[in-house]
Specification:
With 234 residues, this protein is of the alpha/beta class. It contains ten helices and eight strands.
Length: 234
């Protein structure tokens, strides 16, 4: 039977072509991943919160029968309307941006380097979000991309070089954080962790970690090692 150990549902924007790749690469044997898509929104944020809530209810309901936990697979702007997502969630919910904060705290990280695929404005919003959550940011950089499909088409080498070209700021950090679920980071995070010797925490890895914690399945994420007991990461 597919999903013998557990089934994870994922809601992603229409233009995200990366998260499926990363999550399937990471999925432990016996765990299956089940995706559904939402309509794209201008600027990555809902213009009408009531309409957004209606669509969320619909897409969450599509996963009810096939998922034990659900990942809301979006990063940019999520913290502004997380209250709506949580209000309509039908199963244990993982919001990757919040999971990144939980994971970095579990790793006892104080200083981070922030890498994003975004334009400057969006990169700064991510930087400020982590500062507001108590982290010191030693540096940041972005790839100046906006559209989800353009972000998903980013080469592994480009992600790797995004971090390595800021090596002085990275050396001051306890960990690297790479934002965006639309960025396929499985290989790049593994290479960077091996070469830098510090945790490389990516949005898709923490999304998988959070979901597997909720269904009680052990997991070794690419890019970092952390105890996955529910009592330590919630």
């Amino acid at each position: 039977m597919p999903g013998g150990r557990g089934r994870i549902g994922v809601v992603i924007p229409a233009g995200n072509a990366a998260m499926e790749y990363d999550l399937w690469k990471m999925a432990p044997e016996g765990v299956t991943i089940h995706f559904t898509r939402m309509k794209p929104t201008k600027g990555c944020e809902p213009a009408d919160e009531t309409q957004f809530e209606r669509e969320l209810k619909e897409v969450f309901s599509l996963l009810d029968d096939v998922a034990e936990a659900i990942i809301y697979g979006r990063t940019y702007g999520t913290h502004k309307h997380a209250h709506v997502i949580k209000r309509v969630a039908t199963k244990p919910l993982v919001i990757p941006e919040e999971e990144a904060v939980n994971t970095l705290r579990a790793l006892e990280t104080r200083k981070i380097f922030v890498a994003t695929p975004y334009i400057q404005k969006r990169t700064m919003e991510e930087v400020n979000f982590f500062k507001e959550n108590g982290f010191e940011v030693t540096g940041y950089d972005g790839l100046n991309k906006v559209r989800g499909i353009d972000i998903s088409n980013t080469a592994v080498f480009t992600i790797y070089r995004l971090v390595k070209r800021n090596i002085e700021a990275v050396r001051k950090a306890d960990a690297v954080y790479i934002a965006c679920t639309a960025l396929a980071t499985y290989e790049a995070s593994t290479y960077l962790h091996e070469d830098l010797g510090i945790p490389v925490v990516t949005e898709n890895a923490v999304a998988m970690l959070g979901a597997l914690n909720k269904i009680g399945v052990k997991f070794s994420p690419p890019g970092f090692s952390v105890c996955t007991r529910r009592s330590q990461i919630t």
